[in-house]
Amino acid sequence: MNHTNLTLRDLYDTYNLNRRYNHPDNVTFSHSYFGDGKYPPDWGEKRTDISTTHGGRREAIREYQGGLCARCGTDISNSEFNCHHYLSLDQGGKHDLNNLLTLCLPCHRLIHPDVDDLDGNWREAPIFPSIDADPRMATVRKPVVTSERRQYLPSLSLVAEKSTPAENTPALSTATFKIGPGDALAAAEDFERLLDEMGIHFDSEYTVHVTSSADLSLYDATVELTVSSQYGTNITLETTTDRSGNARFELPAGREIKATVTKGRLGPVEFVDTTTTEPRTREITLQD
Ligand SMILES: [Zn+2]
Q1: Which helix (DSSP H) or strand (DSSP E) does residue 186 occupy?
Q2: The pTM is what?
Q3: Between residues 116 and 54, which one has the greater pLDDT?
Q4: Distance of alpha carbon 231 from alpha carbon 218, whole angstroms
Q5: Which of 33, 102, 167, 256 has the most CB atoms less than 10 A away?
Q6: How far apart are the CA of 89 and the centre of ligand 1, in A?
Q7: How far does residue 152's CA lie from ligand 1's centre (Å)?
């Protein structure tokens, strides 16, 4: 990684960028980079009316990001890449360096599923951004883990729905696609990889056995568990007991869990426990 020590302020000088062009209103048809009246003359390396020893805004941001895609972290220092406006021009976004990110072509294609004229194949991009992704590219970076976490397939929009809004709001680009079984499989693998990167390994079997005070197994009792992840985010899982009164969870080992058990007017019973690598059963009685 060749992270620059330059700040965005430095980069304006190093790349001889004109702050006047930060504002789209100051970009006219005659001098715009693509002749479309939109992109500033100092957008890229093929400048029309300025001369510097460096490339334009695109190159400045690529240097700022250490030559990596802001979403998946792939090395784009020697390959084609796109420069993305975080807040789009349509939404009032500007060309200032604060609002720009460089992306690999597949990632850019993925976050604009409705735009046809982009290069790249979204299937080559990971569905979930890298854990180190720029927060602005964090859409569905931290999916919520539920006990039926493998059942979100094959719809990726469902994955988006399951993502925690607070952790994903920085990203404005929401990708929702229709996908086939192959993509769903890739998404599932991607999801497992992401959980791994987050330090979440489901290596503990934890069962809550719920009975009534008459010592009868209780069907359909609700068991809600909260586990802390090592990234400080809590994972909440909820499931109901089966006919034997059991609610089974796959959880990370060595973590404190907090649980609540209820069934209709019975309960709640709350308890705290720690998961281990050995399978474990906790007996809970709900009083009539
Ligand atoms: Zn990428």
Answers
A1: helix 181-197
A2: 0.62
A3: 116
A4: 35
A5: 102
A6: 21
A7: 23
